Amino acid sequence: MRQEGHPGREAVQGLAVLGATGSIGISTLKVAELHPGRFRVVALSAYERAEELRALCQTWRPALAAIHAPETAHWLAQSLADTGTEVLAGPTALERIVCDPRVTTVVCGIVGAAGLKSAWAAVAAGKRVLFANKEPLVMSGHLLMALARQSGAQLLPLDSEHNAVFQCLPQPRAGLAGAGVRRIVLTCSGGPFRNTPASEFATITPEQACAHPRWSMGRKISVDSATLMNKGLELIEACRLFEAAPAQIDVVIHPQSIIHSLVEYVDGSTLAQLGNPDMRTPIAHALAFPDRIEAGVTRLDLAAVGRLDFEVPDEDRFPCLRLARAAAVAGASAPTVLNAANEIAVEAFLARELPFAAIPQVIESVLEARPVVPAESIEAILEEDRMARECAHRVIGGHRAKGVVAC
Ligand SMILES: NC(=O)C1=CN([C@@H]2O[C@H](COP(=O)(O)OP(=O)(O)OC[C@H]3O[C@@H](n4cnc5c(N)ncnc54)[C@H](OP(=O)(O)O)[C@@H]3O)[C@@H](O)[C@H]2O)C=CC1
Ligand SMILES: CC(=O)[C@@H](O)[C@H](O)COP(=O)(O)O
Ligand SMILES: [Mn+2]
Does the model's pTM come out above 0.90? Predict the structure, then answer.
């Protein structure tokens, strides 16, 4: 993560917000709205929510917009005809956006592995790249970090825990050991089922799983928080972003989500970043870094919060965390397989085709079925992702054939 030579301070940043219609995209635009002299919205993207993208384009008047399906793009172009927005579609639209010379800063707010190619293109193009989309980092973070060193891209974490760790580390950095870091502690809310007995997991519905106690987020990450896979993915994400070994990352349950993560130093000091659970804070931090700007969030009132609690995570009830740690230790293709199996299992759960309790079972079966192979090119990673998804579909098919009912 380099700091020099990028538009943090003086130049107006040209923003490309990928996944503009999602939770991260909307929070980013709320921060940008507070600072019209600092940020110009150059490009917005969505996948299928065309009405929402049209409304954003009418407000922000970006030079470029992208949506997945060509026929939807045609409709969008017609309805934005008087705005000057050029509408793109198809597989290379996002790559074209991030490479546009008017774009200095790319906000990666797409969900899942679907964000990998655009994130990759943004890093290759040497942009300032703000990562919320953790799945590409889990799959290929080691390659993205190396690519950033070559291209001069500046990678900044938006994920609240990683942004907190970033804030607790000295800048510029020269590795964790050089900075005297002993370990990184990621906090975890515990999700909506922190106190739910495992015997009740079989009947959990998508609505219950998506009702996160602290954060308002998209459906996929909300389910990940409920299984604790979100923390597992974040453990791997932290290994990638901070070039840490899995053994240097611990997880602690902190139900209030006020401390967003901690860094322990060899001298016994532990630094933490605190704030109300609102993504506009890490987004404002990364957008303005190294400056600090108003984020529009409610100030933290510790007396009103009253108490901060901590617990050890229960990996028996939440095996996804254990599976993710094992994948981090195995390295190579294992994190890609873990992520792919999780995406397919969560999709099936949200479609009421798989019980909540079966999500970790599917992931474990896919991890057992796929050999760990080298992951030293983006092509190899994409191929492993494809095969792991196929395997997950077969495992889920077998599960359904046994007549296990989903809620
Ligand atoms: N929400 C949060 O607070 C946090 C999110 N993150 C991470 O950020 C990412 C985004 O999360 P979140 O904003 O909650 O997700 P949302 O589901 O709210 O938004 C996802 C966005 O990505 C677009 N999208 C979905 N599928 C595709 C696809 N195949 N190709 C291109 N675009 C697509 C959606 O478009 P459309 O609306 O048209 O479907 C939407 O704009 C995730 O990786 C998540 O883990 C990390 C920390 C916090
Ligand atoms: C806001 C954010 O960064 C999420 O990733 C959050 O961490 C989810 O909360 P959990 O700690 O419940 O996974
Ligand atoms: Mn997070």
Answer: yes
CA 390 to chain centre: 23
367-403: per-residue pLDDT in tens?
A: 999 999 999 999 999 999 999 999 999 999 998 888 7
Q: Where are the domains of the chain?
A: 13-157, 165-275+301-402
Q: Is the CB of 188 under 6 A from ligand 2?
A: yes
State whether ipTM is beyond 0.95: yes
Ligand nearest to the CA of 118: 1
The ligand 1 atom nearest the CA atom of 110: 22
CATH class of the domain comprising 165-275+301-402: mainly alpha
306 contact partners, CB below 8 Å, separation of at least 6: none
CA distance 85 to 65: 7
181-188 and 259-265 as β-strands: parallel, antiparallel, unpaired? Answer: antiparallel
pLDDT at position 174: 76
CATH no., domain 13-157: 3.40.50.720
Q: Is 231 in the pocket of ligand 2 (CB under 6 A)?
A: yes
59 CA to middle of ligand 2, Å? 29
Q: Do 13-157 and 165-275+301-402 agree at the fold level?
A: no
- Ligand found nearest the CA of 131: 1
